[in-house]
Structure formats: C-alpha cells, structure tokens
Specification:
heterodimer, A: alpha/beta, Rossmann fold, 2 domains, six-stranded mixed β-sheet, 34% helix, globular, B: mainly alpha, ABC transporter involved in vitamin B12 uptake, BtuC, two-stranded antiparallel ribbon, two-stranded antiparallel sheet, 74% helix, 2% strand
C-alpha cells in the first residue's frame, strides 16, 4: 500500500466554553486507506471532522494537507481542496433531480448566459454511478423518490464530481439495511482502489472490522491510539473507547427464567394494512421480550405504529389482556397500557425545547395535576426517581435535553413512558446512534423491565443485539411475518435468510 | 459527552417559579427599552418623562397586552392570528349594539367575550382539524370579521350611552386607569397558566414538536382550539374596553392593532416557530412598541410614519429572534 499521507492534523486543540473538546490530538490518514474514527458520543470525533471540513477552526495545532501546511477556513475551501463530508442527515435537495443535486453549486453551464447544460450533467452523473457500481439510479429522477441508501450513493457521486481525494462518512449505515450496508462497503472499497481516502465513523464496531484498514480511537477529547485493524480486536477497541470493560454476558443467562410467567398481555390476530403489512399474528406474554428483525422497509415500523395507535389498520384484531381494543389515536393506546419509543427520537419522541423534567412528565401530567394545575413538588419527586432509576446523566432535572448525548436522550424517552407504568413497551430501534456503553445500559434496562413483568417488543436492525436481548424473534419480510425463532434456535444466518 | 454535560450544567438554573422565564435576550430588549426612554426623555424636553404620560402609555399598551396574552399562547403552539385587529372592531360594534337594547354592561361584556371566544374556537377548529395554515385561515377571518363589522354598521360608529360601560375604558382605579389594572391581571393569569398548568405545558409541547405531542397522547387539536378561543375572548374584552374608551362601537378601529400585538409578542421573545415564549417578554415588548408610538407623537412625527417605524421594528425583532437562536440558545425555552 502507498504510504504517502494525504493529511496530518498535528497537536490539534479545540476548546469550547467550559470544556476541551480536543486535547492535543494528532490524526493522520494515508492515501487510499479506509480509516475508522472511533469513540463514544462526545469523544471529539465530530469536532475533529468539523475542523477538517472547515466548520470549526482549531485553537492550536497545524493541518498538513498533501505535504503543505494549510488553514481550512470554510466548507467551500475544504471542498475545493478535495475534502468532502457526507453527514448522517444527508444534504440533498429532495425536490431537485439527481443530476441537479450532484452538480449543485458546481453546475456545468453553456454560453455566457450560464444556463445549465443538462445533457452533460446527466451523462457525467451516469459515469459516476457506473464508477460506483450502481447503474440503477436514473440521474433524471427527482431525488425524493430514492431510498436513503441510494441518496447516499448520490452524495458519494457528488463528492466525486468535486474530484474529492478524501471523503468523510459520518454514520453512513445508521439507516441502511444489512443488504444495503454490504453494497455501500463494496462502493467504499471501490473508492479505496481509486486511491481515495475514506474516514469512516460508525458506532457499529463490527462494521469497522469489516471495512477499515486503520482505526483511530478517541476518548474525552484525547487520542487513545491509532492502530492497524489487524492489531485490534473487538474487546480491545471497546476498552480503549470507554476506558473499562463492558460485559455483555449478563443478558443471555436469564432467558429460561423469564418465560416463567405465562399471562398473555397482547395478542395480535391477522393484522393488515394495505401496502404496509399483511396478516401479522403473534402473542406477547408478561415478562417476555419479542424481537422484531428484518430489513428497513419490511413494515416493522408501520406495524408498531398500528400497535400504538398512530396508524389505523384495515383488518385484524389487537387483544390486550383478553379484551379487543380499537385505537383511534395514541391516546387510546396509552390508556390500554401500550406505549412506544419511536425510532426517530428527535422528531417523534422528545421535545427539544423542554428540559428533562418536562419531557419525562409530559404524558403523566394527569396524575400529578388537579384542575389543570401541575404540582411541581410531585413532578420533581417523580422525575428524580426516574433519573436515578435509569441512571440519566447529568442527574439534573432541569437539563435541556438538546444538550444531552444520544444515549441519555434515549433514556429520557424511555423514562417518559415508564413513568406511566405501561404493561407493554414497544421500542423501535432504541439503540440507534448511541454509543456502546449506553447500549449496554439500555439492554440491561430492557431485561430488568421484562423481569418486572412488562411485555417488551424490541425492534432492531442489528442482529447481534436482537439475539442478545430477545426471548423470541420474529422476522419480517416485505410486510409479512417470514418466520419465528426461540432465542436458543436463532442464529444470524437463519434470520438473514428469512429477512432478505 | 463531557462537553455536552458541562454546557448543560453551566446553563441549568432553577426555574420553577412564576417569575422564571426572563431570558438574557429579554434583558437585551429591556435595555433597548431603557435607552429609548432616555432618548425620548431628552429630546422631548420633559414632556415625555412624566407620570401622567407613563399612565397614558400604560393605557395604550393595555389592549395590546390583553390580546397579546392570547397571541402568545397561539404563537407558542406554532400558529399565528392575523385577525385580532378585526376582532377588535367587530366586538366593539357588537357590544355597542347589545348595549343599545339596554343589556347591563357586565352582561354585554360577558356575551361578547363568549361570542368572540366561539369565533376563535371556530378558527382554531379549522386550523387544527382541517390542517390548514393558521396564517391563511386568519387572513380569511380578518376579511370576514372586518367586513362584517363594516356591513353591520354601514361603516358608521354606533354610539354608547351606558356610563358604567364607558368607564371601563375611561375610568380610574385610584390613580391607575382601569384597562391597565385589567391588563395586569390578565398578564399574571396568563403567565400562571403558561407555567403552572397542563394547558400551558401542552402548548409548549405542541409548538416544540407536534409529532411527539401526538405520540405522547396530547390532544393536540384541543390545545390549538383553546389557544385561539382564549385569544378570541380576550379580543372581545379588548374590543369592549376600546368601545368604552371611544364612547362608540367603531367598525374602523384596530387597523394596525395586528401589527402592535404581533410586534409586542415577537419582540418579547416568543418564537415564530413555536415552542418558546413567555408573558414577561410580552410586557416589555408591548411597552417598547407603545413608547415608540407615544414618543414619536410627542416629538411631532405624523402617525403614518409611526406605522412605518413599527413595521421596521418587527423586522428587527425577527432578526434578533433568529440571531439568538443561532447563537446556540437552541430551542431551549428559557
């Protein structure tokens, strides 16, 4: 491999009011390598990336890019230098065509009147897609018609149009299915073969071992180490990231015990919604954790929305504790003791204008108020109880949730429902975008809730965690139930076979 | 994580009380208000900075505050009501008509408040149930209400002879004008409802994140309808006070009242995007708008130019609104 370095960031320090986000960090990437940047939320990964893409300026340190010391003053300059960043929330204009997006700000134009040369743009786009092993995307199509995975490929094509030599990808697989992820990896490897360097950020460590050549690990704004991937293993990386060992063994052991209680909490019979899901039947016992696996778009989220009163279904029955229920709105579902933490935490679960207390009690105000007046002493008491029960940090009921890490936000979203003492808790992708330490805490919490007799529906696209947490695993494929496993019979291969 | 937590800790303050909610930005507006007072005090050679002029300004802003309390609720839910000026005219005309038939003054006020409350509820229902943009719905209502007021009176004022009613607009409670006393109580009640009740909390929730509010089991439609109904009721009250003040129900009043109310609420820090705001800001915003009008009048600036000045002030307020949000206060409410 070529040992030439595309850039070196030397002794970078960046301070925000009250905290050192980066403390004397040195980070270097070789030409044509896939370099994973690893660390918990708040470790300094995004700050480092933002410096590299021109959004932040470092307080101290130097950046040497292709052998020359430079200063990156703006995202535009970073692009001109050949550094492109693809953020988790993609930056495409959904109303424009694919080709328009690829050449946005960089249009191919004809004559002095600067009108856009569509033909050249479309042909060039086709070329890029071919280069990226994807000929299915039509450059003439409106971008909003593409899947998230395809939009990501458009972003990569856009980076190519800028002749980028360094592409930074921030959590590119967080909303991709297993299949789409594999395809993205092929594309990334293709980029590498063309001599383009890729900085790859992901919370999913398995991916890093699959794709990266080198990994740099950050913790609390400090560089912990940069190593070739061959010299690392999973537990070493986790240890470097969190500074302690995380045990995942706890969970598997209790599986037999927890199925002791046989009270049926929820019975779903032939539930159907045209175009979304069909003939879904399953039962959920008290103390049971039912895992829902499947690809993105298999209909899991829509099914969960139907179960929680957010979506009306066409046919079938929802029976809770032996009684058939009809949900006209989430209010009815909540009254029947069935609640959901949404996969889209920021948009569907939490109020970013609220603090921890206000978020946790929002669905509980009826119980702590009289004639509409909220008793703040009761509110404080309950909130504090749940902050300590769920180990929410900072343990302060007045913290605005907008300032909290993803893991703690998720705990707030869970606390908001636990406080209402539901019988059935649906968790749709509860660990999306949160770090390893917080994930382990969420798993533990799910187990504890099940032991207390709650029924849990656990939806996840990550197979290892489905296998780790669930008592029973249901696999969905194209809106139908493709199969059902007890935990002891399930393997990643068996699930995948049914899901794809 | 460390970064976020530190930031959070440094920002968190105790904020349970009714007087919580005064932000740094409001302090900035308060500072602007003080500068403005000094400016007018110097330029007017003592005509501006007197107790009697202060009471005059207070009386002028009291209507803005009364309706502004309702508008603050509406804007916190992420909506807006452009029809309040026309409500002022309509309720003034109707109350004058009711009084003409010899209905006691208090009953007349109550009837008008209930009637205007129902109109507000109707607008709220259309906005919430038919999922229409409140800007457009209330623009339509503006036309309907002001048209109705003009059509009913043929464009001419209806005179009021009821002395007790007239004194609501013109009387004093000790040295303080009655409208000022009313506005003060409405403001306190408004802040209490906002900070201490379920309705207030839900209003912030609806404006902060509609999706999450629905999934949290909040009856979103009801909150929006209530907010518009409250504004309708308070417009009815304001319209009655105004009619008393003018000894008549006049279909042409309140033409730039929308401007005053929205300016006061926005200057007070209530976000146009919803989810953020409080009544203390409204108080400062209303006085800022009122003092500009009053000061310019004392300095001899024609009324029409004052309207231009108010328009510019709204623009500046919106600019400040955006700047402070970008400065990282986020959508944090306080």
């Amino acid at each position: 491999m070529n040992e030439e370095k595309i850039f070196i960031m030397k002794n970078i320090t960046k301070t925000f009011p009250g905290v050192k986000a980066l403390d004397n960090v040195t980070f270097e990437v070789k030409k044509g390598e896939i370099h994973a940047l690893v660390g918990e939320n708040g470790a300094g990964k995004s700050t480092l990336i933002k410096i590299l893409s021109g959004l932040y300026k470092p307080d101290a340190g130097q950046i040497i890019y292709k052998g020359k010391e430079i200063k990156i003053n703006s995202p535009k300059q970073a692009k001109d230098l050949g550094i492109s960043t693809i953020y988790q929330e993609l930056n495409l204009c959904p109303n424009l065509t694919v080709a328009d997006n690829i050449f946005l700000g960089n249009e191919k134009s004809k004559t002095i009147f600067q009108y856009i040369d569509d033909d050249t743009q479309i042909n060039k786009s086709r070329e890029y897609f071919l280069n990226l092993l994807d000929s299915e995307i039509d450059p003439k199509i409106i971008t909003s018609n593409l899947s998230i995975a395809q939009q990501q490929i458009v972003e990569i094509a856009k980076a190519l149009s800028y002749k980028s030599e360094l592409i930074i990808m921030d959590e590119p697989t967080s909303s991709l299915s297993i299949h789409e992820t594999e395809k993205l990896f092929e594309i990334i490897n293709g980029l590498k073969n063309q001599g383009i360097s890729v900085i790859y950020i992901s919370h999913r460590l398995e991916e890093i071992f699959k794709i990266a050549d080198t990994a740099t690990i950050l913790r609390d704004g400090k560089l912990i180490g940069t190593k070739a991937i061959e010299d690392l293993d999973y537990s070493t990386v986790v240890k470097m990231m969190v500074g302690r060992e995380i045990e995942n063994k706890y969970y598997k052991t209790n599986i037999q015990e927890s199925s002791k209680k046989q009270e049926v909490l929820l019975e779903v019979k032939n539930l159907s919604k045209k175009g979304l899901f069909e003939n879904i039947s399953f039962t959920l016992n008290a103390g049971e954790i039912v895992g829902f696996s499947g690809l993105i778009g298999a209909g899991r989220t829509d099914l969960m929305k139907a179960l929680s009163g957010q979506l009306k279904f066409d046919k079938g029955k929802i029976i809770i504790k032996g009684e058939e229920k009809i949900f006209n709105s989430p209010i009815d579902a909540i009254k029947s003791g069935i609640v959901i933490t949404s996969e889209d935490r920021k948009n569907e679960s939490l109020f970013m204008n609220f603090n921890v207390r206000e978020n946790i009690t929002i669905s509980f105000l009826d119980k702590i108020s009289k004639y509409g007046y909220i008793f703040s002493s009761k509110e404080k008491k309950f909130t504090n109880e749940f902050i300590s029960r769920l180990n929410i940090k900072p343990a302060n009921l007045e913290t605005p949730v907008i300032t909290m890490s993803g893991g703690n936000q998720q705990k707030v979203a869970i606390a908001k429902w636990l406080i209402t003492e539901p019988d059935i808790l649906i968790m749709d992708e509860p660990t999306r975008g949160i770090d390893v330490g917080a994930k382990a805490e969420i798993y533990k919490l799910i187990k504890i809730l099940a032991e207390q007799g709650k029924g849990i529906i656990f939806v996840s696209s990550e197979l290892p965690e489905i296998l780790l947490v669930s008592d029973k695993i249901l696999v969905m494929n194209k809106g139908k139930l493709a199969g059902e496993f007890l935990n002891k019979d399930a393997t990643e291969e068996k699930i995948l076979e049914l899901a794809v | 994580m460390a970064l976020k937590e530190n930031l959070a800790n440094s920002k968190t303050k105790k904020k349970f009380g009714l007087f919580s909610g005064i932000r740094i930005r409001d302090m900035g507006v308060l500072f602007a208000l003080i500068i403005l007072i000094i400016f007018f005090a110097i330029l007017s050679h003592g005509r501006f900075f007197t107790i009697s002029n202060f009471l005059t300004v207070s009386r002028q802003v009291s209507l803005t505050i009364i309706v502004g309390v309702g508008m603050t609720f509406i804007m916190i839910t992420g909506n807006i009501d452009l029809a309040v000026g026309s409500y002022l005219a309509l309720s003034g005309v109707l109350v004058a008509a009711i009084l003409y038939y010899g209905v006691p003054w208090y009953l007349a006020v109550i009837i008008i408040m209930i009637f205007m409350g129902l109109i507000g509820a109707l607008v709220g229902t259309v906005v919430a149930k038919q999922k229409l943009n409140s800007l457009i719905v209330t623009l339509a209502m503006l036309g309907i209400a002001s048209g109705a007021a003009l059509a009913y009176t043929g464009g001419k004022p209806i005179f009021i002879k009821n002395q007790a009613f007239i004194s609501i607009g013109n009387g004093y409670f000790g040295p303080i004008p009655i409208p000022v006393v009313i506005a003060f109580f409405i403001l306190i009640i408004g802040q209490f409802v906002l900070r201490k009740t379920k309705f207030g909390r839900y209003a912030y929730a609806v404006g902060g994140n509609m999706e999450a509010a629905i999934t949290s089991g909040i009856n979103v439609d009801r909150i929006i309808i209530y907010a518009f109904a409250i504004t309708g009721m308070l417009s009815g009250l304001s319209g009655s006070i105004m009619a008393g003040r003018l000894f008549s129900g006049n279909p042409t009043v309140g033409q730039d009242f929308n401007l005053d109310v929205i300016a006061a609420v926005v200057i007070g820090g209530t976000s146009l995007a919803g989810g953020v705001g409080n009544m203390w800001g409204l108080l400062i915003g209303a006085f800022l708008v009122g003092i500009i009008g009053n000061g310019l009048t004392i300095l001899g600036v024609p009324y029409f130019y004052q309207i231009i000045a108010k328009g510019l002030i709204i623009y500046i307020a919106i600019l400040i609104d955006r700047q402070t949000r970008q400065a990282g206060l986020g959508k944090s409410r306080i």
